[in-house]
Amino acid sequence: MNELTTDFSILLPALIAGCLVAISHVPLGQQVLSRGIVFIDLAIAQVAALGVIIANRFELPIEGWGAQAAAAAAALAGALLLTWTERKRPEVQEALIGILFVLASTAQILLLANDPHGGENLKDLLAGQILWVSNAQLIRAAVLTAVFALVWFTWREHIGRIGFYVLFAFVVTSSVQLVGVYLVFTTLIVPAVATYRHAPGRQLLYGYLLAIGSYVVGLGVSLVTDLPSSPVIVWAMGVLGLIVHLTGRNGAVARAPH
Amino acid sequence: MKFIRLTALLLVGAASLPANAALKVLATTPDWGALTQELGGDKVNVYVATTALQDVHRVEAKPSLVARARSADLVVATGAELEVGWLPVLIQESGNANIQKGARGYFEAASALRLLEVPSQVDRAMGDIHPDGNPHVQLDPHNILAVAHALTTRLAQLDPGQAAYYAARAKDFDTRWDAATKTWEAKAAPLRGAQVVIMHRDQVYLCHWLGLVEVASIEPKPGVPPTAAYLGTLVGKLTTTPPKLILLNAYNDPKAASWLSERIHTPAVTLPFSVGGSPEAKDLFGLFDDTINKLLAAFK
Known about the structure:
The complex is a heterodimer of chains A (258) and B (300).
Chain A: H1 2-35, H2 40-57, H3 65-88, H4 93-111, H5 116-125, H6 135-179, H7 181-195, H8 200-225, H9 229-255
Chain B: H1 2-16, E1 23-27, H2 30-40, E2 44-48, H3 63-71, E3 74-77, H4 87-94, E4 106-108, H5 141-158, H6 163-187, E5 195-198, H7 204-210, E6 213-217, H8 228-240, E7 245-249, H9 255-264, E8 268-271, H10 284-299
Parallel strand pairs in B: 1-2, 1-3, 3-4, 5-6, 5-7, 7-8
Helix pairs in contact in B: 2-5, 5-6, 6-10
């Protein structure tokens, strides 16, 4: 009994982190999918990591707030660049995002060519593991999520293209550090794909239920099987997402007449 | 892969049988797990955080690892920054006062050893350098013995009621290990002075112990992948003076070593590196038996 309680308390911070990430990523993911820029989160995460490494090259402190500021500044620059390219070359925006991803990733390799040890530490700064989440991280994420929710659900019509990319950059830079890049991508894209054939008014609700349900199921399965938590959650969301997607066709047909 | 799982299961399984009195131990590598088991017998319950085929610099977070960090009485780590990427965070987030750095329940093998390759100055341009010295210490049996002595003292401090038990087991291990070390050294005598190419700096203690001479390493600086120019120079240099062996570890990607092996016509031998790194390396004795046997077989 005691052992079981201990185990639940291990998963609680991870579950809270998952819910916080879901709150922002499910609505952002629907936007990302409709704009056809699915890999933007991977590109932004790489640009943020590049920012930290560049800051370190200039001997700026990389601990704590220094790294956060560098990551956020780089992500912001990446976001502004993507806003500009979406205006100038909308027809190839997704391809440009892909190019930004490989350029940012390989720039890190070149900058770190003689510095693998420091490099590993720096990259770890931006690669979270959901079970390691600390209380301080949860508080920061909660504040950011509250700001996001306020902006998104009150002024979304007014923030425009720049507002979207800026908001996206800040949210993803934080969430990648919280839960890692696989879970960020999954939480962003899977609920959006799973629900897009459902009635528009229900997509957000179903997306939230799917994302949070997957974190609960995934963490539970990870606890029972003792497999690494992040990949198990990704698979839980993949499987549950497929089920939600398949029920969507019927739902849409049934609701079509009115 | 299966035997790794099996070894881990055996270690954990054998240790989880005894009653609640057993000390809960979190060992960072299979070698320290095996050593703690040798010394602690059924008075310890050992959990091993990594397998031999894993790079111990990095670890995936599993629920059981976090659970063990919370309940552990003792952490047995290598130290010298080997586990710096994950252990400090794990210990801090565990909220377990017993295992914080400096507490009695935190043990570093490096504290009992004199490390090789302690840099006189640390410069990031030198590559993956550990400022406290090279932490891959387990492939010298004299190191294992020194750590065993320090660990026995620590076990007795944590569990004074069983001090006599630990002392008796340590004495027994000491005798068997000493005899085995002499056998290994006798068997490996022909290897002394042999020129070898190493992969990374993690075979340094093995070379030091057996008197192998490192003429080159495939990674130009520790942790830095070789460049085209470097590989060209390496092949040129080694073709004129071919070494006897290329050494790599079970967890290394064999690509670079087999590439070089083909070009300079020198056998590449994969060593287990850690307990569980080969089917024969079931425990610490098996690890050294197998390492020596593989070296001798390839040396012929």
